[in-house]
Amino acid sequence: MNGFKKNKILFFAIAFSTLFISCKKEAAPEAKPLEIAVVKVAQQDVKLESEFTGQTFGQSDIQINPRVDGVIESLNFREGEIVTKGTLLYTIDPLPYQAKLNEAEGKLAEIEARMAKTKSDYDMMVPLAKMNAVSQRELIAAKSAYNASQASLKATKANLENARIELGYCRITAPISGLIGISKVRVGDYVRPGAVSVLNTISDLGDVRVRFTMSEQEFLRIFREISKKNSSLVGAGKSVSLLLSDGSVYPETGKISFADRQIDPTTGAVTFEAAFANPDRLLRPGQFVKAKVVTDVRKNSIIIPQRSVIEMQGVFQVYVVDNNNKVDMKIIQVGPAYKDSYIVTDGLTANDKVAFGGTSLLKAGSVITPKITEWTPGKTEN
Fold this sequence. Notes:
Elements lengths: L1 H25 L7 E7 L1 E23 L5 E6 L6 E2 L4 E5 L2 H36 L5 H33 L2 E3 L4 E3 L9 E2 L8 E16 H12 L5 H4 L2 E5 L10 E6 L9 E9 L10 E18 L4 E3 L2 E7 L5 E12 L2 E6 L6 E3 L12 E5 L10
Parallel strand pairs: 1-19
Antiparallel strand pairs: 1-18, 2-9, 2-13, 3-5, 3-8, 4-7, 5-6, 7-9, 9-12, 10-11, 10-13, 11-12, 13-17, 14-15, 15-16, 15-18, 16-17
């Protein structure tokens, strides 16, 4: 009997312990609220940029053309290097032009001798004519011969000067200082003068020109905006930034130099040109770039990070955090994108705070632990 009581007491002790443990499990503490990154809505002036495809040109791109025909005798430069103004670039075989010069010099000597004789004859005829020793006809003939020899002398001197110029054209020098390209001819090639006969091109890379086109509609909109009194686009719209082909931003800012006088009727676009400093010679003629121009300025715009926005079938929503750390989903109206942010046109105020990340874990009415995160448009850290 005593053994039975002991077993009964042991049974109740084990059952009580099991019940106590199960109750303890059911009374587990509640989970802590989610810690979510939260940002304050920003309000600031926003400069909106438009991108236009453009191409680079040297400050001066000078083509080297032969001015006389002949055989290329030498190349006196290294392709792809900087040359200075006056540097000898090419020589054309000078022998034919030296021969023409020698012939012109001989002709000049002959004409000078002839003129000396006709002058002497005329000078002798003048006093004889006064004494009626010779007829007026003979005097006039002598004077005509002298005048003709003077005219021949002028023509011969002109031919001589032309021969000297042509001989000088056999030495082709750099018209400007700049970067010279790959030669289109080699030693032994025969060249002729003319616009289509290009030996090389030199580009002055001190400043680089960028030409880009803008649609007629965009041009008209910007023109009307700039024409308004106290327009905020007047100064901002003249500066241009560049995106290179690798996506990097060119460190120098350019300024619009001019717009073409007309709109191209075939494309409906107007051409602009902007000038950029090129101290490191990073820009070369012929590069394709994207020119970014400020085409709109929005005053006191409400902006939020794009990653805070949930888009579903064209509807934009954000989770707004109130003073009690409770989140509520709001539908907003967004305007243009600005860097990695959106301009919000309706639905938010400058005093609101929105969830920055972890929105997939949230639902309306949730209470969170906000982690205030600093952000700047275009410089948001992950």
